[in-house]
What we know:
Distance between the termini: 62 Å
Mean pLDDT: 97
Largest sheet: 7 strands, mixed
Oligomer: single chain
Number of strands: 11
Strand content: 15-25%
Bound molecules: 6-O-phosphono-beta-D-fructofuranose
Structural class: alpha/beta
Order of helices and strands: EHEHEHEHEHEHEHEHEHEEHH
Number of helices: 11
Shape: elongated
Amino acid sequence: MKRIGILTSGGDCPGMNAVIRAATRYAIFFDMEIYGIYRGYEGLIDGEFEKLDRRSVADIMQRGGTALRTARSERFMTPEGLERAARNLETFKINDLIVIGGNGSLTGALVLSQKYGINVIGIPGTIDNDLAYTDSTIGFDTALNTVLDAITRIRDTSSAHERTTIIEVMGRHCGDIALYAGLTGGAEYVLVPEFESDINDICQKIMEGVNAGKLHSIIIRAEGYPVSSLDLVKQVEERTSREVKLVVLSYLQRGGSPTFKDRMLATECGVMAVELIRDGEKNKAIGEKDGEVRAFDLEEALAEQREFRYDIYNAVDVLSK
Ligand code: F6P
């Protein structure tokens, strides 16, 4: 009987549990055994494996986080760690591994497949949306809705006090949360790690708004933007003489019940992962392209470079005048 391993790795995201549930129940449906591996690659190295059954994944789809817990693993980046991980999979007679995570996690999975021949199926689970091969990652939609809810609440008080509010969101290297939330949240300005904006341009935009009768302004800053939020507050206050407040959303963006979109994408990815393993498909990354969930070659998928959506970035400016 074929045995599958499944783990969640890196930053958790809403929707991971929906993947685990779909993969587990479809594996059992196809008469396979499926083992949950706890704490990502750390648990893979430490042998924290547990056989899953239908009941193991009951009542988890609506919950954020991950029933298998997760971790970031420095050890997995070492030859010794990789060796131990591969040996543990061999001991459990598992040669097919489903990895749910972001860019770093899927890249680690590729190394495991290249060095030890483990068949890896990658599923894009991260709020960052930083995987170029897929239009959307699991967790991105839920995180965006969390940020939009925060922007709506902040707009109330920011306008009441006629303030400028800087909202810091997650995204170390990818500014998609800031970009898409800024556009759909009606922000005046979006600051992303992909490039540095001119502080004078930011302040000019704020003052144009004031002169046009705007009561307040909202700036969305991705945490990876090269100028810190505190420095930005100071610079904008000095240049505009306006009251500037800072809200850091931080880990709020990682939690919450997954939206329909994330649950649907997660479920489709979980089912497809097991179907690919059933059909003997090797080393694939599952993603969404033009509304359709598809499987791509893992190495090619991870080699794709993201293109920044300047059209959306420019639309933020036009729409907030
Ligand atoms: O990768 C997803 C993410 O949420 C990033 O947006 C964020 O910078 C990072 O994880 C935070 O990592 P940690 O949870 O390890 O602090």
